[in-house]
Amino acid sequence: MKPPRHPTHPAHRADLADRADLVDLVDVVDLAQRPHPTRPALRRMPARLPQQQGVSLVTAIFLLVVLAMLGVAIVSVSGAHQVASALDVQGARAYQAARTGVEWGLFRQLRPTQQTVCFNQTTFAMPAASNLAGFTVTVQCTVTDGPGALKRFQITSTACNQPGPNCPNPGNNPDYVQRVVQVEF
Question: Which pTM does this prediction carry?
Answer without folding.
Answer: 0.59
